[in-house]
Specification:
Elements: E1 10-14, E2 18-20, H1 25-34, E3 39-43, E4 49-53, E5 56-61, E6 66-70, H2 75-85, H3 89-93, H4 104-122, E7 127-135, E8 141-142, H5 144-150, E9 158-166, H6 170-179, H7 188-200, H8 211-214, H9 227-239, E10 254-257, H10 258-273, E11 278-282, E12 286-287, E13 295-296, E14 300-304, E15 307-314, E16 320-321, E17 327-328, H11 331-344, E18 348-353, E19 361-364, E20 371-376, H12 383-397, E21 407-409
Parallel strand pairs: 1-6, 15-18, 18-20, 19-21
Antiparallel strand pairs: 2-4, 3-4, 5-6, 5-10, 7-9, 8-9, 11-14, 12-13, 14-15, 16-17, 19-20
Amino acid sequence: MRQSPATDAIVELVEHEERFVRLEPDEAEFLWRTYPRVLDVRMDGGGRSFVKVSSFVGSVMTPYRELRIKPKCPASSLFYMLGWAYGLASLREEAVGYKDVESVWEFLVALLIEGLERLVKRDLHRGYVERERALPALRGRLLVEQHLRRMRPAELTLPCRFEELTPDTVHNQVVRFTLHQLPRPRSDLLGLRLHRLRSLFSFAHYRAFTPKDLGQIVYDRLSEHYRPVHSLCRLLLEGRGLDHPAGSYPLGAFLLDMNVLFERFVAGWLRENMSRPYSVETQMSGHLDFGKRLRIRPDLVISRSGKIVLVADTKYKSMSSLSEGMQVISSADAYQVVSYCRALGIARGALIYPEWSGGPEVYRVRDGETSVTADGVDLGQSHFAIDRIMRRLCARLSQDHEPRGTRSRG
């Protein structure tokens, strides 16, 4: 393949937007086949290629160039959401400083490297791991059955089972695996620091982890300082596609699904800020029918003292508006939430959007009992404004009745 011009080595795209990109025919086919959920690649009659991005941000590599996909919202809003979605307090507290970032991928890798360097200076986690080994002297417990089975007159070792204090724990194994999933950054300095950390963590046993595995790790007072590092590891592994059924993305690719990120952001923010006796449950599984053949899985279920009072779905999509200034939700979104309300035996449902301006709008269903409230947050605002909007949204959702001052539609 011929090398593409240097001026075309990096192409910038924006989520949900289409633009002309000069692509080789085999390059266009590669993108179309490899990233069908991310990119819509089409060729016009003159052989020109147009690329439209769906709800993803990050980087995609081709044999000729890098496609960098930026979010529609400001960089500060993106990192603010990442901070709440993955429990990374430093990201959400310092989001105001992130005006623009050339590569989301390299920025997050730099954060991981900085976090690991601090962790190494502090102390690596050590734990007791059970071992079985033949030793010249008894250590721990003698494995009698194995000893009798292999005993010979000249045998000079004893099969033992014992616990050994070692840094080769799951906490460090996760770090080693993640470091080896990261392609070399463009920055030479960052690349050297990454190489050094790979060497430092080479003592840990190398085994594969999925992002879901990282959610099962248990922390105590001696390992709690690993939690933010593991949150970044999970974020980077998900961005590499290791939670995707088809396997990881090709080398160099890093993609954030904004649908998932927005859902986790709203859930994380509400879970931490909603006051008792209210609580938030995510992805609660249930059934619409008595035969349990029609499954439901709402994004958010809000309960008061254990009793469900509201069900909500997050919808990362643009809103259309009518001439009188009222935003319009899709019928499919409303049908979905109404079915959740019916299945759970409650009267209130909500839809939460990322480009919502103004107050909530209530749609009253003709059964006279059920209502659907369209509400949301404007991610185009500063993260200080988003925080204020989320607090008002939280107050409205944690009410046992429709919020006052809402616009109603029959």
